[in-house]
Amino acid sequence: MSSSKIWLSSPHIGKNELRYVNEAFETNWIAPLGPNISAFEKELEVITNTRSAAAISSGTSAIHLALILLGVKSGDHVFCQSMTFCATANPIVYQGAIPVFIDSERDTWNMDPNLLRTALRESRSKNKLPKAIISVHLYGMPSKMSAILAVAKEFNVPVIEDAAEALGSEINNKPCGGFGDFGILSFNGNKVITTSGGGALLSNDPEMIEKARFLATQARDAAPHYEHSQIGYNYRMSNVLAGIGRGQLEVLNDRVEARRRNFERYKKYFIKYNDVGFNIRFQEAPSGYHSNRWLTCILVDPTFNNGLSREEIRLELELENIEARPLWKPMHQQPVFLNAKRYLNGVSDKLFEDGLCLPSGSNLAEEEFERIFECLDRIFSKYQNI
Length: 386
Ligand SMILES: *Cc1c(COP(=O)(O)O)cnc(C)c1O
Known about the structure:
Number of helices: 12
Shape: globular
CATH topology of the largest domain: Aspartate Aminotransferase, domain 2
Number of strands: 15
Bound molecules: pyridoxal-5'-phosphate
Order of helices and strands: HHEHEHEHEHEEEEEHHHEEEHEEHEH
Strand content: 5-15%
CATH superfamily of the largest domain: Type I PLP-dependent aspartate aminotransferase-like (Major domain)
Structural class: alpha/beta
């Protein structure tokens, strides 16, 4: 293949990351503690408007710590958005707890608050309320947080807000990550900003975050020797990676703006085809919602597009060395969770069937957009008159 690969979402490094990393080397803070970690945590607190943040080795381990801190144990139930990446659900199983999957609503593609209420009513009638609810802001689009929080409060169940994809997203100017009892972020290589691998646990309860730091460093009790009265984890972020994170936070707004411009650009492009009879749909932001547009996704229902499917588009793009991916396959459809209890309404099944994530990096070049649109033009022209 001659032309270089266009990635779905690749790391986009700024000017100062290396400076912070060099500082770590020069001062020999090559450890899971140090000045970059403390500064990174403070900066995260400011950006997410939360009282306390812990820098963690990944978003997955941050969710795991949140579940531990909420007392989730073997045999407990945890309600989890079905339409998500497996990392949202896996830590439930690490705890020996039982995931129960909740379907999405059509607007934001996130947890349906009405279905959540139905599920909570049923579980209360069986005297088995979940220990936690995990909701997700999919592709950066905030979920219907006020409704979810209201329902959760009605049943007195804490909420973990998986904001792994939503750093920089807001509802009515309030940042995602600070709504739930806990919020989690991911700095994996494909996210809006990256530390190459990493995450954060957020909360407005500083005591809880202090406990998280303790658990994440092998639960060492205060003693000159190694004393342990609890099982701990090696989940802390390294001071070197926190240096990358500090540089990335400096450019967060630029990265979000670039991704939002990608979305507007795609939207404008597809509307041209919608005007001549196609029906390509997008993840639309409800009023007051500000999505970081981590990934631009489209819905292509063949019934309304002369038989054109998202898979056909994906394969054609692949031939041109352009990476596009189906939306997350809902957890209730995953082989590993086939026996899990679920509350469904058909929304996530349909999203998976019709949905495609398009290249959305903040570093997408003009020529790359041109290659993508050229390929899409070819596909549409094939389907235009049949
Ligand atoms: C990326 C992601 C995670 C996990 O983050 P890691 O840092 O890769 O462990 C969790 N939830 C969602 C929705 C994600 O997209």
